[in-house]
Amino acid sequence: AKAAGRNTRRFFNPSMQARVLEHAEVANDIRKGMHNHEFVLYFQPQMGQSRQLIGAEALLRWNHPTRGLVAPGGFISVAEETGLILPLGQWVLESACAVLAQWAQSPKTAELSLAINISARQLVQVDFVDQVISALHHSGANAQRLKLELTESMLLNDVEDTIQKMHQLRVHGVTFSLDDFGTGYSSLSYLRQLPLDQLKIDQSFVQDLAEQANHTTIAQTIVTLAKGLDISVIAEGVETEAQCIALTNYGCEAYQGYLFGRPMPLEELVAMAAQ
Ligand code: C2E
Ligand code: CA
Ligand code: CA
Ligand code: CA
């Protein structure tokens, strides 16, 4: 059945037409949504080894007038395909910097870092570095608190160009985390070339931990790898105490997941920091 599927000639059928129309509709909706300020950032707590709050990841949400609060799965791919991810990503960057500048005003939040997700289309922009630097300058945010999450696949487009941009931003103090680590296909030698500060263990490997208690897990291997590269490591999708304990035993330094908090509005994250 698989082979037949692969050999099937693609042609434009009514269901595809419906999809194209839906696609165009979503794209228009995104444009309207940006104009009407319907996009918001949610913040998911990140905890350190002793389970103290060390920062957050900003995750995009769409406060849609009829669809309700929409997660990125419902619009990110359309935003990527249409290029709308560029203005949207710019908004995320500027909003995150504004939040960091605000956090700097209070001792309870001044030390927190904030991670944002960067899409491949943003990274390949010739003025990507300028965009980040000017967002930092305009907001007054401390570059050292801003973490950019990249994924393996996007780094492969033009490795030299990516490395150069990362170095330029690192001079200013910006840090980099490699998101969804382990799901891509980067070779280890290539990993060593990248000026990374952190590996982020993909949640699929964290979910596996419960069933694989007796042998070496991929999560454990990634922690060891990070230590070998002398960079930090964070696990995402930590949902249970058992997963967290296993990760701690491996030497994992930071955690993110429903065990500690779901993505939440800014005020809730700030309230968590005040505790
Ligand atoms: P991601 O960067 O891998 O983010 C982690 C996703 O896992 C988030 O989904 C988060 O809500 C979810 N998650 C966190 N903890 C747990 C857990 O304990 N269990 C489970 N099952 N899931 C957990 P979300 O918010 O729906 O975001 C999905 C993806 O959309 C993100 O995956 C990221 O790739 C993308 N995205 C989100 N915000 C942005 C953005 O501002 N820009 C770009 N380019 N992409 C974004
Ligand atoms: Ca991420
Ligand atoms: Ca991830
Ligand atoms: Ca992911």
Short characterization:
It is found in: Cell inner membrane. The protein is α/β, with parallel strands linked by helices and 275 residues long.
Tell me which ligands are bound.
ligand C2E, calcium ion
Largest sheet: 8 strands, mixed, barrel
Helix content: 40-55%
What string, H for helix and E for strand, traces the elements in order?
HHEEEHHEHHEHHEHEHHEHEH
**Tally of contiguous helical segments:** 13
Could you give the order of strands across the largest sheet? 1-2-4-5-6-7-8-9
Q: What is the count of β-strands?
A: 9
> Hey, roughly how much beta strand do the residues contain?
15-25%
End-to-end separation: 56 Å
Q: Could you tell me the radius of gyration in angstroms? A: 20 Å
Judged by helices, strands and strand pairing, the structural class is alpha/beta
Average pLDDT over all residues: 91
Tell me the overall shape.
globular
List unreliable stretches of 5+ residues: 1-5
Protein name: EAL domain-containing protein
Domain EAL: 23-275
Subcellular location: Cell inner membrane
Tag the structure with descriptive keywords.
275 residues, alpha/beta, 47% helix, disordered N terminus, binds calcium ion, EAL domain-containing protein
